[in-house]
Design goal:
The protein is mainly α. It has a domain of 52 residues. The protein is 65% helix and 0% strand. The two termini are 64 Å apart.
Length: 95
Amino acid sequence: MNPMAMLAWSIGWPEIVVILVVVLLLFGARRVPELMRSLAKGLKSFKHEMKNVSGELKDTDADETAAKPQPPESEPTRQDEPSPYRDTDDSAKSE
């Protein structure tokens, strides 16, 4: 990989400190804790919903595999008998 590309995407402690200072200047000391609390609540809610969805998917998958319908036992049909679902009138094909 190109070293310049890696350098552009690496974030170290100096960059994190600069970002935190900018956030503090933009929102003020009173708003930052409130923003962090709301961000934490949102992340907690997101994780909770992701667990619910993955649990529902696992339950649905388990239900589908447990209640897999068996094909009906039927007698084999003879090939020379006309099917009730096929159109036997050849005049429609010639048009």
